[in-house]
Amino acid sequence: MASVRKSGGDNLLVRYIILVSWALVCVVPILWFLTIGFRPRTEIIVPEPIYWPTWSLDAWRLLASDWPIALYLRNSILAVAGSVVIDLVLAIPAAFALARYEFKGREDIGFYILSTRMMAPAIVAVPIFFLFKNIGLLDSVWALMLIYAAINLSLVTWIIRSYMLDIPKELEDAARTDGAGDLTILWEIMIPACLPGIITAAVIAAIFAINEFLFTLLIASTSKAYTMSVALANFTGGSDGVIYNAIALVSFIAFAPILILVILIQKHLSRGLTMGAVKG
Amino acid sequence: MAHLSQRLEKGAAKAAPAAAVYSARRPRSATAKKMFPYLLVGPAVLYLLAITLYPGLFAMYQSLFVVKFVNWSWAGLGNYTRIIQDREFWAALGNTAIIGGLSLSLQTIIAMTVAFFCYRDPFVRGWRIVFLMPMLFMPSAVAFIWKLAFNDGRVISDLLMSVGLASNNVDWLSSVWLARLTLIVADVWQWTPFLFIIFVGALQGQDEEIEEAARLDGASWSSIFWNISLPMMRPIIVVAVTLRGIDITTMFTNVYIMTQGTPGGATETMSYFIYRQGFRMFNFGYASAASVLMLLITIVIAQTIVRRAFKSGKS
C-alpha cells in the first residue's frame, strides 16, 4: 500500500487486463471487417465462418466497374463542405452576440438554439420531406446541404460561443479605445483568437454531416443524390443479398479522412463533443 | 418565440439606422446599438426556426388529416385517438426506453471504468486513439459490421460455440431479447468512445496535487476516485450522459439496417415507427401525429433535464 504508484488503478495486472481487453473489443471487429473487404463474395455469407481469408480484389473490381463511387463521394464532399460553410457564416456572428452582448432574451435565444439539437430527425422527417418535395429539391445535393447545416448549427454556435467566452475582455477594450467598431473587433480579434474553436466546430459538424443517414435516405430517394453513408445501404437487396466486401471497402475509404481530421483536433475533442460545456 | 420574431422584423424595418453599425467610428443611435446583437443572432435563429417551427406546425396540421397520397381528408383528432390505443406506438416508446436505457448505462459504466484505469497510464495517448476508433466509422457501416457478425456471417455464434457458451447456431432475430441485444452491442461499441473521451479528459484535467496529498495520507486509488474525482466530475458526467441519452432516443440507422423492428416489433424504436408509418405504409397523417407526440416529449425533456445540465456544466 505504501509504495508510490504512478497511475490510476492500484493493481497493474488488473489495469492492463481491463485496458487490453477493451482495446481488443475496439480493434478486432475493425480488423476483421477490413479482411472482409479483401474476400471473394463466396466466402462471406457462409454456414461456417472462415476466419482466414483467401485474398481477393473482387470488391475493388465491383466498385470500379458498376458502382458510381465517384458520384457518391462528390455528393458527400459537396453537401458536407457546403453545410459547414453555411454553419460558420451563421454561427460566428450568433456566437459573438451570445458571448459578448447583454440583450433581452439572450438566455432564451441561446437555449432555443441549443434545443434544436435535441430534436429527433424522425420528428421532422415527414414535414421536411414534403417541404423539399414542394419546392422541388428532392434528390438534390443542395437540399442535403441545407439540412446538414440545420442539424449542426446549434453545435457549431455553442462550441464557438464557448471559445469566445474564454477570450480576455482586455483585448477588445484596448481595440475599442483605439476606435475599433464591433464588426472590426469580431473580424480582427475574436475570429483569429478563437480559431481553434472554429476549426473544432467545423470538424465535428463535418463528421456528423458525413454520418447523417435518415434525412439522406428520404430526400435522396433515387440514387442521384446519395451520399456515402446511404449508398452503403444500397448494397443490399436484389438477388445478391448484402454485398459486404464492397461495404467494408467503402467504410474504410470514408474512415481514413475522418481519422485524420479527428487526430488534428484531438486536444479539443471532448470540448467540441459537449458543445463547449466541458473545458477539456 | 413569437415576440422575438416580431422584434426581428422590427429590426429589419429599421435597417436604415442599423446600417450605421457597419461604419466603425460614427456615433450610433441608441436603437441601433440595442438592435445590433439581434442582427448578429437573427440569421441563425431564423434559419433554425424555418427548419424546426415550420415542420412542427406542418406536422400538427397534417396530423389532423388522413392522408392518402394526394388526398387529404379531415380527421380532426382521429389520428390521436387511434394512436393512443395503438399497441405498436406504446411498444415503440417502451422499446426506445429499454434499449436506450440499457445502452446508456452500459456505455457509461464501461467508459468510466476504462477512463479510470488509463488516465494516469504512461501510454494514455495511445490508448485514447485506440479507444476512439469505433466512433470514427459511419453509423451505417457499423450497423453492417454487427449485422454480419451476428446474423449473416454467424461469427458471434461460432465464437460462443467454440468457448462452449452456445450449443448451436443462435438465431439472433428470433428472440426479443437477443434482437435487442444486437442493437445494444452495436450502439455500445460505437458510442462508448464518446463518453470515454470526455471522461478521460476530465480525469486528466484534475488537479494532481489533491491526489498526491490524498495518496500521501495513504488513500487508495479507488477511494480517491470515489471520494474526490467522481464528485468533481459530476457536472461533466451529467452533460455528457445527457447528450448521449438524447442521441440514443433517436436511434434509427441500426434498426433500419440490422433488425427492421423484428421480431414482432420488439426492436422498433420511435424513430423507426414514424418512418414505417410514413414512408412504408404512407399513413402520413398518422406518422405526423406520432411526430407531434414525440416532439412534446422532447420539449419537456429539453426544458427540464437539458437546460439544467447545461447550466451546471459551466465548470
From TrEMBL, chain A:
InterPro entries: BP-dep_ABC_trans_perm (IPR050901), MetI-like (IPR000515), MetI-like_sf (IPR035906). Keywords: Cell membrane, Membrane, Plasmid, Sugar transport, Transmembrane, Transmembrane helix, Transport. Its main location: membrane. Part of the ABC transporter complex MalEFGK involved in maltose/maltodextrin import. Probably responsible for the translocation of the substrate across the membrane. This is Maltose/maltodextrin transport system permease protein MalG. The chain crosses the membrane at residues 12-34, 77-99, 111-130, 142-160, 242-265. One of its GO terms (biological process) is transmembrane transport. The keyword Cell membrane applies. GO terms for cellular component: plasma membrane. It is a multi-pass membrane protein. Belongs to the binding-protein-dependent transport system permease family. MalFG subfamily. The keyword Transmembrane helix applies. Pfam families: BPD_transp_1. It is found in: Cell membrane. CDD domains: TM_PBP2.
